[in-house]
Design brief:
- The chain is α+β, with helices and mostly antiparallel strands and about 500 residues long.
- The protein is about 25% helix and about 25% strand.
- Strands 13, 14, 15, 16, 17, 18 and 19 form a seven-stranded mixed beta sheet that branches. It has a four-stranded mixed beta sheet with strand order 1-12-11-10, covered by helices on one side.
Length: about 500
């Protein structure tokens, strides 16, 4: 992973350079050193602890809990990792190319090994892909990739169901190998899972391909399955570090240090095109214009979200290129859109499930819509009743949330069988434009223009996660959703 060289020059001027960010760091360059010494790293084998769920698997294709998925980041590596901007950086991949319209070729870094010394080659990647395709965690994200083949020892081809220039962004699944006689699947990462004294540990992988000299050479995994218990363990110091995907009460109760982390979780207002009111395009536009996204971020999500100024995550390249929504309300524009609709005092039923954050957001949306002339009835339902109402079309608009895949595709909205296709007219020019975009027949700008003209749903916010860590830990904590332990070699206790 990250190489760290601390050079002490016995000259009048000490020069140093540290490059930060969620990704690779470059070595410091020191011209004409007179004397060079390597700083002593003191190993810490006892203090750094993370939570895991003992009843859940640590196999990355079988893990169901966020607990264990985070722990797996210490041991297993993907071909590509998502960075803080939700773009991807190569990890085990040395290069990639789209030499045919529907085929992605990936060349591996040379000399890769699993922690037991076995070669990690193209066939290992194919096996990992097949396991990931069968897992509930990865199958949906990998659905655009039909199969993988080992072209040579170092080259893997991935066959795509359609032309997709972002398909390499889907290759973030972990590469793991099961071996007879080994309790835990093998990885190629910085650590490996072991047991001792009745405990589970992540210990240094002596076959790791890069210089890696962390202070935390042995990390204990503490069995703490429940969310409330994890929060309490952080507060009293029983664990050192955890990743939280916060609910309404998660943030305020935590007394540790916190770092916001971008997730690709979109919260949106869905529109029912079959509704007598929401079928009017100007009503749909008015809904989007009336919503103050910044207020929802600050009040409903306690600052742990980002205003959706694009369909795509605002931190991503696509999001920055396709900015199309105001973060604050355009009340004048909303009133004009209502006037254009020809509907006087339009009345809307806003459907929301029992999620605390979305209930809070729904109440704010009600106030904002009523401020421009809507009448809004918030209808709160339990989970099963909520989805039944969506299926039956018993609403005008609804508040939903979905995780956008790494390739930023919106097929769940613009495919009749998609998980978030409720209320969207799949025969619309917007849906057609998206299909053309996927097939390479239309540029992204052409699709976003059709989207703004049709407003099939209104993106609200992209929800953040929170990295939580002990106040006794120091160092520039650079973890992100794609690598929770990005620069762990730079972390230390007092």
């Amino acid at each position: 992973m990250t190489k760290k060289i601390l050079s002490i020059l016995l000259v009048a001027v000490i020069a140093f350079s540290v490059l930060v960010g969620c990704g690779k760091k470059k070595e410091a360059v020191n011209p004409e050193p007179v004397t060079q010494q390597t700083a002593q790293v003191i190993a810490d084998t006892t203090r750094f602890k993370i939570s895991y769920t003992q009843s859940d698997s640590l196999n990355p294709y079988e893990a169901d809990t966020l607990n264990n998925m985070v722990a797996d980041d210490l041991v297993y590596e993907p071909l590509f990792r998502s960075d803080e901007s939700l773009d991807v950086q190569p990890e085990l991949a040395g290069s990639y190319s789209y030499e045919k319209p529907n085929v992605l070729y990936v060349t591996l870094v040379s000399g890769l090994e699993f922690s037991n010394g076995d070669a990690l080659d193209a066939s290992s990647v194919v096996d990992a892909f097949n396991n990931a395709k069968k897992s509930s965690l990865w199958s949906a994200a990998l659905s655009p990739i039909t199969n993988a083949e080992a072209v040579s020892d170092t080259v893997v081809s991935f066959n795509l169901s359609y032309k997709n220039e972002y398909a390499h962004r889907l290759l973030t699944f972990p590469i793991a190998k099961t071996v007879d006689g080994e309790k835990y699947a093998l990885g190629s990462g910085r650590y490996k899972f072991t047991e001792g004294d009745g405990n589970v540990y992540a210990e240094l992988n002596e076959n790791y391909r890069e210089d890696f000299n962390p202070r935390f050479t042995r990390i204990q995994l503490v069995n703490i399955p429940a969310t409330d218990s994890i929060n309490n363990a952080l507060n009293i110091g029983n664990i050192s570090y955890a990743y939280r995907s916060p609910g309404a009460d998660d943030i305020s109760s935590l007394k540790c240090n916190k770092k916001r982390v971008s997730q690709n979780n979109l919260v949106y207002v869905g529109m029912n095109n079959s509704s007598s009111v929401a079928s009017n395009v100007n009503i749909r536009k008015a809904v989007s214009l009336a919503i103050d996204r910044d207020t929802i971020v600050k009040s409903a999500y306690q600052g742990c979200a980002k205003s959706a100024t694009s369909i795509f995550h605002p931190s991503s390249n696509l999001g920055r290129e396709t900015k199309m929504f105001f973060s604050s309300a355009d009340t004048a524009g909303a009133k004009q859109a209502i006037a254009k609709s020809g509907i006087s005092s339009p009345s809307l039923t806003l459907l929301v499930n029992s999620n605390k954050l979305r209930i809070s957001a729904a109440q704010l949306i009600k106030q904002q819509l009523e401020a421009v002339g809507f009448k809004v009835n918030v209808k709160q339902l339990g989970e099963s009743e909520y989805f039944e109402a969506l299926k039956n079309g018993s609403y005008d608009i609804y508040l939903g949330e979905t995780k956008i895949p790494g390739d930023m595709r919106l097929s769940s909205f613009f495919d009749s069988s998609g998980a978030t296709a409720y209320g969207i007219d799949q025969s619309s020019s917007c849906a057609s434009a998206y299909g053309e975009y996927l097939n390479g027949e239309r540029e992204i700008g052409g699709f976003t223009l059709e989207f703004s003209n049709d407003m099939p749903f209104a993106p609200l916010v992209y929800r953040d996660g929170i990295i939580c860590y002990s106040k006794a830990i120091h160092g520039d904590i650079q973890g992100c959703y794609g690598d929770f332990f990005t620069n762990i070699e730079d972390w230390y206790y007092n």
